[in-house]
Every structure is written in structure tokens, then in C-alpha cells.
């Protein structure tokens, strides 16, 4: 991959280090905070203007979002439960991104994982705890296989993973739709129910447990998601494997010279990313976030939104935790918008505006850093020329 003006990676991609100027860092921090505040304020103002233009009350709309996500009884427990699969998908996405790969097929990987989880949970005999573990494992394996197809095409036939992962999403939808027409696959074996093309409900003992906290019901999938985020954050920053993964993503040529196999490390990262998405599908099903049975639209855009969570977290697993909660709050809060007379799709508009608002500051910061690096490199080059010729 070419770099601008063939400058060293450290000069182009890294932030310049200013020695003896801590005030400069404080200035940069204040600028970033100001950019975030300004961007979010403008986004919310535009959303309010849109609501007002469609005949609604901006105050009542934002109040309804808060009621549905936090303030009403049991709301924040549902929000946290909804955030769990989003966080799992985001953490898996971060693993692939750190390796320099673009996995955008999480929706299909999640759906395949949920389908295999459902099949295992209702057809494998045994104690509930064992069947639940096997079902979640089957979900992770399903997502890994689906992402593995893209990894194979990427490193065997040089097919860009951004294309293959996206196209596999549509194949996944068709496969699951077909499975919901066959009783030997996913269709409910109860003849009175299967005409609706839905799967069988998971047995009660194969569902993830729940805890009651201050009047809120929270699925144990929340604990699973947070633990995975913590483990991945520690692995990426403190392990040899994480270092190799980051090296491959930052500079594939240098990684290859250091003995890092792009096919082995990159392919594994893409497969693990799919496994996380498949596990999220299993957690979505066993945690009853989207119901206790498979349907054709079961994934409900959780894969796409998990991708956005990773994007806004800027590939940091710990930052993905609050970002997942924000996206989950928009999902749960949108259910209260009907009481305001505003279409619930306005929550999607708010979400899109916030995504743009949170992407602008990093983009501006990266542009400024790159300009500073290029200016410093050119200044160094002029000093290196005898006589300092421009």
C-alpha cells in the first residue's frame, strides 16, 4: 500500500511528538472536545428542525427517547440487554479492522450464527446448561464459517473482503429464509404454527439467565459482552498476538519482513470477527432481545449497528462499551415515539446524525495531524539538503 510522498510510516501515520510543550497537548485536547460538542449540538439542532418541519415537537420527541431508553420502569435494563449483541459485534469488528481488513458482513454472520444456535438449542438433547453452551458455540462457529468464506477468497483469489463479506449477507438471508420453510431445518415442527414460517421457541432451560437490579431485568449476555470487550482490549494491547495483528494493520510490508504471515494472521482475524458476530446472534436469540425463536428478519440490523459502534469507537474495545449503550438507547427509545405522533423512523435519523457528528472531529483531527507530519517531514528534508535549498 502506497504512502503519500513515500514518507516513513512514523512520519505520516503517527502524531508528531512535541517535546516540552504540554500546553500544546492541552490545546489539542480542548480543540477535540470543542469539535465534539459543536458537532453533536449541530446534529441535535438539525434533528429538532426536522421534527418541527414534520409537525412534531422536538422537546416531546427527545423526552420520549429518554423515557423509552432510561426513565420509564425497566427501561435501562432493556437498553443494557439490547447493547450486549451490539457490543459483541463491535468487538469482533475491531479485531478485523486492527488487521487492516474491512468486514462489513456482520449482519449475515450474525444471522447464520443465530440460525445454528436455534437449530442446536431445539434439537440437541441434554441438560439445559450444556445445550446452551453448545448452542452459543454453534452460533460462533456459524459466524466464523461465514466469514471464513470471505477470508478464503481474500487470500486465495485476492477478492476484496469488503465486497465478499457484503455479498454474503444477501446469501445468508436467502439461506435462513429457505431454512424457515423446512421442518428438518429451522421451521417449527408444530403444524399449527409452521405456516407462519417461524422457528421453534427455545426451551426455557436453554436461554441465558437474567438478573433483577433496581426493578430492571438484565440479561447475562451483558456480562458476556463486557467481559469479551475487556479481554480483547487486554489481548490487543498486551500480547504478542495482538502486537502482530496491529503491525499487520499498520504496515503489511513491515509485518511481512518481520515474519508475520498476512494470510495466517489476517485470515484468522477475519474468521474471529465473524465468530464474534455469530456469537452475538446466539446471544441475541438466547438472551431474548429479539424474541425466543428464529424469523426471517431476526437480525434486525444489529449487525449493521454493531459495525457503526466499532466505527465510532475508533477501534477501541473499551470505548465501544458506552457507544453500544448509546445505540441501544436509540433502539429502545424509538418505541415511545408513537405517543408523540412522530414516525418512529425519526430515531434512525437521530442515529444517522449522531454518527456523522461523531465522525467529523476524528476526521478533522487526522487531517490536521497529517498536515503537521508532512510539514515536519518537508522541513527535515530541506535541512538535510546541503545549503538548505528549498
> How large is the count of helical segments?
14
Unreliable stretches (pLDDT < 50, length at least 5) are 1-21
The number of distinct β-strands equals 2
Q: Please tell me the CATH architecture of the domain at 77-341 by its name.
A: Orthogonal Bundle
* CATH topology group of the domain at 77-341: ABC transporter involved in vitamin B12 uptake, BtuC
CATH class of the domain at 77-341: Mainly Alpha
**What proportion strand?**
under 5%
Largest sheet: 2 strands, antiparallel
Rounded average pLDDT? 85
Secondary structure class reads mainly alpha
How far the N terminus sits from the C terminus, by CA atoms, comes to: 28 Å
Helix content: 55-70%
Shape: globular
* Radius of gyration, taken over Cα atoms and rounded to an integer in Å: 24 Å
Q: What would you note in describing this structure?
A:
The protein contains 14 helices and 2 strands; from the N terminus they run H-H-H-H-H-H-H-E-E-H-H-H-H-H-H-H. It has a domain at 77-341: Orthogonal Bundle (ABC transporter involved in vitamin B12 uptake, BtuC), CATH 1.10.3470. The longest helix has 39 residues, at 346-384. A two-stranded antiparallel ribbon has the order 1-2. Helix 5 (106-123) runs parallel beside helix 7 and helix 8 (221-238) packs antiparallel against helix 13 (317-333). A hairpin with a 2-residue loop joins strand 1 (210-213) and strand 2 (216-219). The relative contact order is 0.19. With 390 residues, the protein is mainly alpha-helical.
